[in-house]
Design goal:
The complex is a heterodimer of chains A (288) and B (389). Chain A is built from eleven helices and two strands, in the order αααααββαααααα. Chain A has 288 residues and is mostly helical. The termini of chain B are far apart. The chains are: A mainly alpha (288), B alpha/beta (389).
Chain lengths: 288, 389
């Protein structure tokens, strides 16, 4: 069972990431590939606060969200001057910058050595050291993130986001300052991703920069494209699918010599086939 | 929407498949009573975690070959008291997250009591708490991060910590060579950073100053770094790279810039005979520490010839090859002495003393580290020689 609980926790963490990115890409149409940076800021905030300052995990989530929000404000402010493909390239650059900071600000992040020995969360004397209560916590936060995203997209604010995605010029004519909307959703998305990072750091108990590489941003992008853009349920299902698929492939009896490589090949092949036959994703409402 | 429902069913079926695989694998080894007998004669499963895809695969591939070779040798010689050893190999991509998934799978699905791995320090650091919680032994033949020292009673390693080489070199550099300032050229990897950290701590404590120019792994042009260091005129330069090829590049570019400082190099550079001979002139008199290979060691000779016979070439990264080879035999001895009991094996590991292997005599300290490890060396006319004052 432990193995399933472990997978469940990973699914919850990636569901939070996917939901957060879906707000930005799916609903607003901003092709951002910098989500791993925000995920990383949350993770590092929790890791540093817990190991060096003995801060409570739940407080560290809030501080991480604040730090991520600030970073997202600066990045989003710059990115708000970009459009379409240029936005994607700009966000690409920011992921690399933040990754380099994780790698090089050694006094704070210990660079490539990473930060080991991050404690599990505790609340009123109860420590989430077992995986089962941790799964409950992670799932709870994922559900919270889900309802937050649902609330946002069904609000009047969310309708403006979708309008920006469909035709930004048109909605500007109605007097909406679209730059402001784009910036706010970018920051909110980043702050939600940061919660995923905090969970990740305290679950794995060790982080290093390699977990927050550009590849991770692309992985989250793959989750929401596969799950279906502009659909929060799709983001959750996409996360479940992309986390469970490679694990399921561990049980396919490939010969040991090529098993690891074959798993990667089959994994890639399944993704290609899915995109070929279902380009809108599992339950998508919008195509890039 | 009908279609999306189908997809949901697809995901559900996928989960169900994992579940079925999980339970069928779980049942077979412990299918009641009749199987207890079976357990005493059936193969003993040992988990293996190593990077088989991604950047770390260059280390993982030869490691897997060596493990398999060692298991064949053990099984040909009566296995573990008559029972065969069986490896369950899981890819961990050199990342902590995947290593945790792999460890969870090995512990909960395959029910192993011993895992050989991880290879990368990030894998071992992340998998250690998982193994400790399940009272499973994690035995690494390749992770050298100083953070792993004393990480858990269930973790030990037969590869020495990077701290040992950094500390050894710092003492000699300060006390014997009288260097006061050392400039590092450090690749941004956990190994190289570990060496730097240990050296910096010891050297600064002694009273010296260390500066560090670190560079990302894909860097190929070091002229700017070298020029900067040349202007700063440190007493010595420490070349601290992850691979010998990068070290060679730095040395060649320094030569082009006509900068030939007193050198200290890490064991990656001195551990590669080709690099040392090709750069003999530049490296003359360079200080280094080695957890080297001993070509006179009979077990080591056997490992090299057997590998060559089976895979058509000598094993790469031989300082890892020897500890990997030893690890499998140590696991056999651990199982012989303690049976399949993680707690007993963990305690046993701390009693290992002068265990004779391809990598020399292995003694495990109470912290789980290998005793000794690096010894100081100096490079003279293209050869690595023992250091004398």
């Amino acid at each position: 069972m432990e193995y399933f609980i472990h997978l469940g926790i990973l699914v919850a963490i990636y569901a939070i990431l996917a939901l957060s990115l879906n707000l930005v890409i799916g609903y607003t149409g901003l092709l951002s590939v910098t989500q791993a940076a925000f995920y990383g800021i949350g993770a590092y905030a929790t890791a540093i606060l817990i190991t060096s300052y003995d801060v409570n995990f739940f407080l560290s989530i809030l501080i991480g969200m604040a730090a991520t929000g600030l970073a997202a404000f600066i990045i989003g402010y710059v990115l708000s001057r970009f459009d379409g493909d240029y936005f994607a390239l700009g966000s690409f650059g920011f992921n690399i910058i933040i990754f380099s900071i994780f790698m090089n600000w050694q006094e704070l992040t210990r660079g490539p050595l990473g930060i080991p020995g991050i404690d599990r969360p505790s609340l009123f004397g109860f420590v989430f050291s077992d995986n089962t209560p941790f799964l409950v916590l992670a799932a709870l936060l994922a559900v919270l993130a889900y309802f937050l995203c649902q609330f946002i997209v069904h609000s009047s604010f969310g309708r403006v986001l979708k309008a920006i995605r469909e035709d930004e010029k048109a909605i500007q004519i109605f007097g909406y300052k679209t730059g402001y909307y784009k910036l706010v959703v970018f920051i909110v998305g980043a702050m939600v991703a940061s919660v995923g990072g905090s969970l990740f750091a305290s679950y794995i108990t060790f982080i290093d920069p390699s977990s927050f590489h550009l590849n991770e941003s692309i992985f989250v992008l793959a989750i929401i494209i596969l799950g279906g853009l502009a659909n929060n349920k799709g983001a959750v299902w996409g996360a479940a699918f992309l986390i469970l698929l490679p694990e399921a492939l561990r049980f396919v009896g490939f010969p040991t010599d090529i098993a690891a490589q074959m798993r990667q090949v089959v994994y890639g092949l399944i993704l290609v086939l899915l995109m070929l036959y279902r380009p809108q994703g599992l339950m998508g409402e919008y195509k890039l | 929407m009908i279609n999306s429902k189908k997809i949901i069913w697809g995901v559900v079926v996928l989960i169900a498949l994992v579940a079925i695989a999980f339970f069928s694998m779980k049942k077979s080894p412990e299918a009641p009573d009749t199987a207890t007998k079976n357990e005493d004669t059936g193969p003993i499963k040992v988990g293996v975690i190593l990077p088989l895809t991604g950047d770390g695969a260059v280390y993982g591939e030869p490691a897997r070959n060596i493990y398999q070779m060692a298991v064949v040798e053990i099984n040909a010689a009566d296995g573990v008291g008559g029972r065969m050893l069986e490896l369950v190999v899981e890819d961990s991509k050199c990342t902590g997250e995947t290593a945790v998934s792999a460890a969870q799978k090995l512990i909960n699905v395959d029910k192993v009591k011993v895992i050989i791995g991880g290879f990368c320090s990030s894998e071992s650091l992340a998998a250690t708490p998982v193994a400790a919680n399940a009272k499973v032994v994690l035995f690494s033949p390749g992770s050298s991060s100083p953070d792993l020292t004393g990480a858990s009673p269930f973790f030990f390693r037969n590869y020495p910590s990077d701290a040992s080489q950094g500390t050894v070199l710092a003492r000699i550099a300060y006390n014997d060579k009288k260097y006061k300032t050392v400039a590092f050229i450090q690749e941004q990897t956990d190994y190289a950073a570990g060496v730097y950290k240990a050296f910096n701590e010891e050297f600064t404590k002694l009273g010296g100053t260390v500066t560090n120019e670190s560079f990302p792994t894909k860097n190929t042009d070091f002229r700017a770094i070298v020029t900067k260091i040349k202007d700063a005129k440190p007493d010595a330069v420490f070349i601290d790279t992850q691979t010998p090829a990068v070290g060679t590049r730095i040395m060649q570019q320094s030569e082009q810039l006509q900068y030939k400082p007193a050198l200290i190099v890490n064991d990656v550079i001195s551990g590669d005979p080709d690099t040392v001979t090709q750069n003999a002139e530049f490296l003359e008199g360079a200080l280094t520490a080695e957890f080297g290979i001993d070509p006179q060691n009979q077990k080591f000779q056997h490992l090299i010839t057997a590998y060559k016979e089976k895979y058509g070439q000598e094993p790469p990264y031989q300082s890892y090859a020897q500890t990997e080879y030893d690890a499998v035999f140590m696991v056999r001895d651990a199982l012989l002495a303690n049976g399949e009991d993680g707690e007993k094996i963990a305690k046993w590991s701390r009693t290992v003393k002068d265990w004779e292997g391809a990598s020399g005599k292995i003694t495990i300290l109470p912290s789980g580290d290998r005793d000794g490890g690096h010894s100081p060396r100096v490079i003279k006319s293209g050869k690595v020689a023992p250091y004398t004052k």
